[in-house]
Amino acid sequence: MTYTPTEQANIDAMYRFMEAEAVQDWDTVYQFIAPDCVNYSPTGVVRGHEEMHRFDAAMFAGLQSWRRTILDIVADGDAVVFRWRAEARLRPSGKQAVWEALSWVRMKDGQIIEGWQYFDSAEVRRQLRPQKEAAL
Predict the structure, then answer these.
(1) Could you report the per-residue pLDDT of 34-62, keeping only the tens digit for each?
(2) Long-range contacts of range 58-66, CB-CB < 8 Å, 24 or more positions apart?
(3) What angle do CA 77, 25, 128 make, to 5 degrees?
(4) What is the predicted pLDDT for the residue at 93?
(5) DSSP string for residues in the chain
(6) Rounded Cα distance, 130 and 127, in Å
């Protein structure tokens, strides 16, 4: 596909965003998020940097590792849509989950201003819940 310079810049920004997120380089991550950004996902709505910082701190405190990989990505105007795979490992159990999701983001001046995340949250919970101990 051929993209406008802005569309290609938005695609490139999403790759850099996820690279920074994987190493928890929050200064870089938040350069790609507008201060008044709103994010909608199965886990709830998060508004602005302050709420996003709290959400990220809580999520990453429980993880040994986290990695998202973009599988497909397209851009049209200010919208970027991408399918991604997440791999997460819980602390302290080491329990791992892998799932795919879809994100639709709207960008302005290289920053995410709105985002919608779609994934099967019940499946993620199923993979991460502790295994029941075998009955004796």
Answers:
(1) 999 999 999 899 999 999 999 999 989 98
(2) 60/24, 61/91, 62/90, 62/91, 63/88, 63/89, 63/90, 63/91, 64/89, 64/90, 64/91, 64/92, 64/94, 65/89, 66/21, 66/22
(3) 90
(4) 87
(5) ----HHHHHHHHHHHHHHHHHHTT-HHHHHHTEEEEEEEEETTEEEEHHHHHHHHHHHHHHTEEEEEEEEEEEEEETTEEEEEEEEEEEETTT--EEEEEEEEEEEEETTEEEEEEEE--HHHHHHHHSPPPPPP-
(6) 8
